[in-house]
Amino acid sequence: MLPAPAEASAPPPSPAPRPLPTLRSDDGRVVLTASSITVNGTAFSFLELEAVELTPVRWLLWYLLGSFTLAGFAIAFLQNWLRTMPAMVGLAAGALLLAYGRRGTNRLRLHRLGREATHFALPGELAQWQKLAAEANRRIRRAHDEAAAAAATLLLDDSTLGQPDSGTFPTSNV
Asked: Would you tell me the crossing angle of helices 84-103 and 60-78 to the nearest 10 degrees?
């Protein structure tokens, strides 16, 4: 004897997703909420963004100034055009220019859907900004996935309520 088929029961509804906590950078320049990102006081919805990209940028001008200063004072010292003290001061100044150029900045690029990307300069260590950018990208993907699911259910509801398509065109009265 075959066992009676179990009644088809719908799976239990998944619990509502937890609201995402608000994240802030240490200096308060970037704020991530559940539905938007605010950078330097300018707010962007996650639905209008495609992605967030972070790039470390070094200041090339200071690298060039520092290297030319170092090279110029080293050549002048080796050619006996300068004495030791002025040469050492010049070499120290060149090294300081190089160190200042190494400091650089971090460029935050917000890729907006159908528009030109927006750029912001963020100071400080790269690791902190990378964590915020990765979390922003996760939240952007989540917002787009939720919007797509809501649109799919709306389309599904509309298609079941409407008349079935007969596959023919209506006749014209011309």
From this structure: 160
